[in-house]
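To illustrate the input format used throughout this study, we show a single complete record. The first block contains the structure-token representation of the backbone; no residue identities are included at this stage. The design step must infer an amino acid for every position from geometry alone.
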């Protein structure tokens, strides 16, 4: 995901080939972002929506969250359930801003190259103990 148009042609072609190969994969979804920024993602989607509206393709009252999500780089993918942030940072750093609205966030001091299977298991255990409310308040 990301703005691949800014990449060299050979790298862009390789990324597209990888995307086609991975379409056949099932199970866990792993997002790989290249030249990606959450603000750019939202801005690009807003520009697409403006173009659709300008060309008479929709009325703005007909555009909800689901329709807007289909204009993002992640169209067709579910929002992430868990976002793991390595390297002791306590921020999401312009990453999947729209998509992580209801994601559980897991922060670790471990650097990405050292993030092992055991550390992934720890993150999954943390996630399994969370009470997913998707924005609702307890008792609603």
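Output of the design step:
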């Amino acid at each position: 995901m990301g703005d691949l148009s800014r990449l060299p042609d050979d790298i862009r072609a390789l990324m597209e080939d990888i995307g086609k190969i991975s379409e056949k994969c099932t199970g866990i979804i792993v997002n790989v972002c290249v030249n990606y920024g959450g603000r750019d993602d939202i801005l690009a989607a807003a520009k697409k929506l403006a173009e659709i509206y300008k060309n008479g393709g929709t009325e703005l009252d007909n555009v909800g969250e689901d329709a807007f999500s289909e204009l993002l780089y992640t169209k067709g993918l579910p929002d992430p359930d868990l976002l793991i942030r390595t390297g002791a940072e306590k921020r999401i750093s312009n990453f999947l801003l729209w998509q992580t609205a209801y994601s559980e966030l897991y922060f670790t001091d471990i650097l990405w190259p050292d993030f092992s299977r055991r550390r992934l298991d720890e993150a999954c255990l943390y996630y399994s103990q969370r009470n997913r409310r998707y924005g609702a308040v307890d008792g609603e």
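Structural context for interpreting the output: The longest strand covers residues 82-85. The longest helix spans residues 38-54.
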